[in-house]
Amino acid sequence: MPDLAGALRFALSCLWFGVRDRLLPPAQALQEAGIEAGTRVLDFGCGPGSYALEAARLVGDGGRVYAADVEPRAVARVRAAAAGKGLGNIRVILTDCATGLEDESIDVALLYDACHDLAQPQQVLRELHRVLKPGGVLSFSDHHMQEEAILAQVTGSGLFKLFRKGRRTYTFRKEA
Questions:
Q1: According to a count of CB atoms within 10 Å of the terminal CB, is the N or C end of the chain lower?
Q2: Pick from 124, 167, 128: which is nearest to 27 by CA?
Q3: Hey, what CATH topology would domain 25-174 get?
């Protein structure tokens, strides 16, 4: 029997993200993250792919974007959207934590509007730390969390250090 409630929730979230993206274009947040041609990006908790798809456009053919989400509908949507836009530099990962990516293979990890929903946020932060290159960047935004909670959550384990606070995101650097 189809999961109609889950499908409805996902459709409503896609509608909401579409409105959000018109008011706050993803490119603005990605600019704060320092994404440019050739960058390797992991969008963890990618949802319907607003940031992953824009990142794939920005990194170009020399870069790579990995879009990870626990929701099968999300990764299917990103896969279809990437194919429809001719973006061959984006790969999807269905996961709730482990990405399967190589150690120190990512320049920028995005964790946007997902941390508040994570069952085990510290495990995810450890995974992001593992895949980030030395000096790599974690770009973080979650409007469901207060600044104090964000800073405590991300820097509390010593894996990341706040580098810069932008208009839309917090930029953390990977610590050794």
A1: N
A2: 167
A3: Rossmann fold (3.40.50)
All structural domains of the chain with their residue ranges: 25-174
pTM score, whole prediction: 0.93
Instruction: Read off the amino acid at residue 176.
Output: A
Whether residue 95 contacts residue 109, with contact meaning beta carbons closer than 8 Å, is answered with no
| DSSP class of 116 | G
List per-residue pLDDT tens for the chain, 176 residues long: 568 887 788 888 878 877 777 888 899 999 999 999 999 999 999 999 999 999 999 999 999 999 999 999 999 999 999 999 999 999 999 999 999 999 999 999 999 999 999 999 999 999 999 999 999 999 999 999 999 999 999 999 999 999 999 999 999 999 98
